[in-house]
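Input chain follows. Return structure tokens only.
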Amino acid sequence: MARSPGSRGSTRSWRGRTPFPVVLVTGDQTVGPEARAFCPEIEVVEVKRAVTRFAAESLHPVQACAGIHAGARRAVEQAPTTSPPSFASPVTVDVDWRTADQAAMAQWLDGASDVRVTPGGGRTVRITGDDPLAVYRTFISQVQITRGLAA
């Protein structure tokens, strides 16, 4: 069964091409579960709680900085024993778009590289390729070209 990468997993997919581990991530309450699906040893610092798609309750900057500093210290200490993320080949990412128009537009990028973009049903588009970086770049390109339709 495929894992849902969320934004953290898709951002880390390009790092699957490097020998470097991912040791720290900061963000809202979803960052930990999403990141740990791909990087089980990652240090997580929650600095805000998402309330809606456009709003969050953030920690006071002094508290957030203290948490990030402590988390970074733990992450650096554990870095020598942390493995880089690995991804099975081919890499497949299913993207559930907010609108059918976004899904249709996202499919324009098929064939732009060694990545295949195919309909996944409804508002879902599947990105598949052997190169995690190419899959990531295709996803980011899809986000950029569909951004105007999301408002």
